[in-house]
Amino acid sequence: MLRYLPFLLVLALWIYAFIDCLNTPEQEVKHLPKVVWVIIVLLFGEVLIGPIAWLAAGRDRKATAGGSTPSEWHRNHRTEFVAPDDNPDFLKSLKDDNKKDEALLKDWEADLRRREEELKRRENGDDPQQP
Fold first, then answer.
1. For a disulfide at 72, which of 40, 68, 99, 113, Cβ 3.0-4.6 Å?
2. What predicted TM-score, i.e. pTM, was given to this entire model?
3. What pLDDT score was predicted for residue 66?
């Protein structure tokens, strides 16, 4: 099993570099057009030249805005979790859904009453549509 590890690492780096190259916007690609970088990563992936070249020189790696990492930003901008029972927006949406369901149920009940009355009239021979 251990003898397959180098092959799997090379394959993982190759796939990562290829997907990163495809997902990078054209404006962030350096030195060569994006299509050429994709070809380089695909052709020279087995010997690691293509993926390493892409990761080292192909993409413009910028520092994050404000100099903070995403994890720092998340630590400083935490949102408090609100349980659904305490969330007024969720409770309002439930009330709206209940009103819609009640209106639909009333329509169905009215339609059922109308059909039952129609059936009773047919059974009694009071149906005006019969010849």
1. 68
2. 0.45
3. 57
